[in-house]
Amino acid sequence: MKIYINKLKENWVVDNVISEWKKFNEIITTDNIKQADIIWLIAPWTWKKEQKKRLKTKKVICTIHHIDFEKFDDKEKTDFYKRDGYVDVYHTVSYKTKEQLETLTNKNIFVIPFWLNQDNFYEIENKDYLRKKYNISNSSFVVGSFQRDTEGSDLISPKLSKGPDQFLKIILEMSKNNSKLEVLLTGKRRGYLIENFTKYNIPFHYHEMVDYEKLNEFYNLLDLYIVASRVEGGPRSLFECGITRTPIISTDVGFASKLLSPNSIFEMDRFQFAKPDVEYSRKKVIQYKIPGGFSPFIEMFEEVHEN
């Protein structure tokens, strides 16, 4: 059995997923699509880059990360059904996305979260050192958000699926009762939150793009990470917070209900009652560490290959 993963090169988290898969599963992976038994469309929009005759003669697995039905217009529907004609089975990283897919296709759907590389994310015990390194007071209450928040090229309009407006609302409410609150941001396209934090005098630290070493350090110096998204696939922060024992609360998106305590999941009108449970999430996320996190994928590929 040989698997071909189509290339991405978009400086996205999935690029790293591709490189990790190839590194640890080189025996069953090929860069020659002619030699492949299975084509893994790990980003659905890349299907147009592949020759249709290859898609017709191979088994095709397509990963759907999430579907935002607010943007699922006629063009999106047309593209989906054209691609669906070449897809044998689907893969997604959350049961919520599976439910969305089931309204669009009758193809078999596997739900498997991506693995977690424990070489990149792990707990650091010396929190004082990290605070000092990044010039953050030990008395500060630091809240993190490490994903993009703007929609388009203007770099200001909020990407509503990611919930930056909801994150802002939570931070503004928290700041009323906590004068030591600060926010730590990473990633591109953070213009919406930066503009509003400046407007409302919310102290924040912004590091645009960081490597895994810094990102791991940032998780470890946080007092709280908040996922305020409306639509998500993972998100990866759920897994990364779990393995680093970073306190996290989240809306009920993506894989949150499978990794977090029910007490850590919130509705926007009751976010103040959400309580992090680091031991609960760590116990849940350990099963996705490398190499164990690859096993469900290999089982999926074997099942597809045999059928």
What does this structure look like?
- Helix 3 links the parallel strand 3 and strand 4.
- Helix 5 crosses helix 8 and helix 9 packs across helix 11.
- With 307 residues, this protein is of the alpha/beta class.
- It folds into two domains: 130 residues, Rossmann fold; 162 residues, Glycogen Phosphorylase B (Rossmann fold), CATH 3.40.50.
- The strands form two sheets. It has a five-stranded parallel beta sheet with strand order 1-2-3-4-5. Strands 8-7-6-9-10 form a five-stranded parallel beta sheet, sandwiched between helices.
- The protein is built from twelve helices and ten strands.
In short:
The protein contains 12 helices and 10 strands. The chain has helices spanning 13-24, 52-57, 74-84, 95-101, 127-133, 164-177, 191-199, 212-221, 236-244, 256-259, 278-285, 295-306; strands at residues 3-5, 38-41, 59-63, 89-92, 108-111, 141-145, 181-186, 204-207, 224-227, 248-250.
Sum up the structure in keywords:
single chain; 307 residues; alpha/beta; Rossmann fold; 2 domains; five-stranded parallel sheet; 14% strand
**Tally of individual helices:** 12
By secondary-structure content and strand pairing, the structural class works out as alpha/beta
Helix content: 25-40%
Strand content: 5-15%
- Compute the average pLDDT: 91
- CATH domain fold name of the largest domain: Rossmann fold
CATH class of the largest domain: Alpha Beta
Determine the CATH superfamily of the largest domain: Glycogen Phosphorylase B
Task: Give me the side-by-side strand order of the main sheet.
Answer: 1-2-3-4-5
SSE string? EHEHEHEHEHEHEHEHEHEHHH
Which shape, going by the Cα principal axes?
globular
Number of strands: 10
Q: How many structural domains are formed by the residues?
A: 2
Q: Under the CATH scheme, which architecture of the largest domain would be assigned? A: 3-Layer(aba) Sandwich
Low-confidence spans: pLDDT under 50, at least 5 residues? Answer: none
N-to-C CA distance: 12 Å
Q: Radius of gyration in whole Å, from Cα?
A: 20 Å
The main β sheet shows up as:
5 strands, parallel
